[in-house]
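**User:**
If convenient, please work through this fold.
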Amino acid sequence: MPRIAALCSVLSFFYLSYFLPLHAPSGYARQYCVTITLIACLISYTTNRFGQSLLRKIEGRSFHARGQYTKDLSLLNGNRHDTRRRRQSEAPEYVANEPSKYAWVIIVVILSLRWEIFAWLSYMQRCSSPGVGSFVGLLLLTHHVITADIQKDDGDDDDMDDPWRSIFDELRDWLSTGRIRLIGGMVSSALFCTGTFLALNQVTRSSYICLSGSDMPVITVIWQIIALFLDAYVAVAAWRLLVWKDSMQGRIQTSILIAGVAATIIFTFGFLKAQSWTQYTHFQGMSLLTLLLDGAVLAVMLICSMIWTCDASPLLPVNVVTIITGVAASSSHLIHSGDWLHLSASDALLLLWIVIPAAIAFVHFLTVKIFVVVRQASFTALFAMLLLAASVFSVFRHAPIYNERHPINDLMWEASHKQSSWRMRATTSLTHETAVRFYKETHKGRIPPPGFREWFKFAAQSAVIDDFTQLDIDLEPFWGISPQELRRRVDLAIEQPSVAKVTIEKGKASWSVADANTATILTLDHLISQINNFSTHLPDMTIPINLDRMPRVLPEAAEIWAKVDVHQHLTADSVRWAHRNACLHRGQPLSQSYYESPAELCVDCEKRHSQQHLFGSHAWLQSLELCSQPDLLDLHDFFISERTHPTITQLLPIFSAAKTDMFSDILIPLTPPQQTSETQKTFRERSSDLFWRSGMNLSALPPKAFRGGHKSRLLHLLNEPAAHDMTTMITRTKQKEVQYRYEKMATSHASWLVPTNVKAWLTPKAGCQGLGCQFVPEAWTAEPADVTDHYATQHTLLLDETDGPSDLTLGALQADTVPFISTIFRTWYTGRIWPWVHFVPIDPRYQALHSTLAYFAGKGEVKPSDGPGQADGASIAREGSHWALKALDLKSQQIYLFRALLEWARLVSDDRDHSA
């Protein structure tokens, strides 16, 4: 039975370690953990109350009375031969002294304190060191060495009188003494704990910022060490308390009491810090089934770990988990070696050579008879074979090497071919009849809307005439709502703040809005002038226009695909989980996971649209699917900053300029014409710096946005990276043949190798009270730049604003410059531009920013030897400008808008089913 308990303890521990951070909603971790703890207590109580026959069987097989623990309990095994040599050759017993009457109260208080430290460290994880908990087992063993009662070994009289005894016999006997075994176990424990710590630290950090001033990284590490000692104390104190209980039921009752009271205190303390009872008890995003499952697993771990620990001591469970964690982490690094994250297999192999021999020595020094369910000899053989297999495997794992051609050159070639194929499909229809047939094929037999013939004449000679995929996606949810209900929702949408009413009546378009400013008037006048070019072909209709840059409509999942009438406003804190809930119901990849480690690079989040660490040529649209990238909810200002106007959770028809994944706004061209470059310099005559300027309102910037926002991270990465920050770059080898390879280097050196002019102007400069006002380095700041300054260099960086994509994107695409675009937003033209053909894509995590810019403008070891970068950059600038003037010009915007309004007119028409 102890073997089964040990196996269940290990499995349940690793299940909760992996899934609990994914299941616990962001901002509701306290409520989630308290809830599953109370569920676990309820399940444990039920088992204790109605499973007495099973408990008696367990008690009969493995229960130790307290006298055995004080007199005959070895470190890890209670059954020993009662001989002097046996006693002296085994490690001394771990004595469970009788606990005080109020020991459980002390344990509850420390557990509550430990939770608060855990919650604070979770918030400060960007400054913490992963894997510090690996040393709990070493602390327990150190405590045992200090407190163990070592009996003096007087030796065997017959052996002492043996004239043939040698110094080696004496050395063997000395090494077999209890104290030496403990010291050997302590040394081996120190080795595998250190190996596990190093393995857990071999993670790739994201660009999340640890502020050296306000975040106090040294204090964070000190709190981690304090938490380490608290964990060790709780393990020993709880073990002593439990082993002095006279029955298995008594032990379970004590465990339930400690866990239940601690959970109640933790919940109460969290409530006292909350702003309201409703806010604190609203478990947004929690699944009942997941709660029950996690609670049941926690109950299994609670009971089984109690059985296992009481059968041996706290040393064995803690050190077993540490060993398995170290071996698993090191093996994972070895398996993944050869990619850009794990360049060297030897590093992971070295960790295995530290952990495995130390683990084998540990079980032999401390006479561990059973390692979970495996006997000592089998454990030694299995780990030795694993080490041998890992050594052989590492010989065949190497980081990628590119011969002759830089990988970006290959990406450009692949993207060019794919874009050529798409352009052929997008301009298939040369006649109206062909366009109708193509429309039916791509719309499941649905015929085009009334007025399609006039639209086709209007769109003749257009660069894109058959591909309106984004429009189809935007309108699809509204086909599930009746025309009468749609018209009612239009009226409801117009009542929302910052929503204008555009009316088309008798072939003329006009607008009205409650509060108009200069920017609003400019946008609406431009839109009306566009519509009036074809308004005579449109029926009467009313269109709600979003005047806010930020998208507005984020329906609950049931509202997207069913006829549910829900109206609710969301604040910034709730938008993240409304977004996640919509992902869950649409069944998107990884949508059931929430990434709770923004300080660590989420590899699974970026690999779907990446080739190694570069942006792939195939996955521009995939990179905008945020359901598979939950880490971006912590790495972009859009999901962190407060909203100008609350997000709407009812499926209202609102037309907007941009949106992120899961928002249901209908995208149309709303941007007024932009000023482009007036420089007379040729592309090669301009500066090669990557240029970017933007404003940052420090007073309104939340602390989380200052640490994880996309602007702050960029400024920190390129202007003042931390000394320990590392970046992977593609460098040129020093061989005669042209070869490129990945190499890790200090981020400060990587930033020196690429020319950048990336700054922000800060507001307000006087009277600023925000966090950023105190800690923004001077290296980040500059004066505001003119619009044309962004087009005066060879490379311009187009970063999202807090509430939408950069206003300069269309202008940069039309200008003779290389746009470096980093965005999470979709626009009406998103599907028309191609990465590595019309622009250079940059992941919002910036993991490949240095390597990408180095190809086009790098120096030193990161500059391509044959110098194709500048020529390829000029090619992208030229091709992007040529395409933007053909497919993104005012005429193309009118064509898209005409098509969108025809489709919308049919949706709100009473005879739409007949016309479809």
Summary: The chain has two domains: 2-150+157-395, 400-493+549-648+675-916.
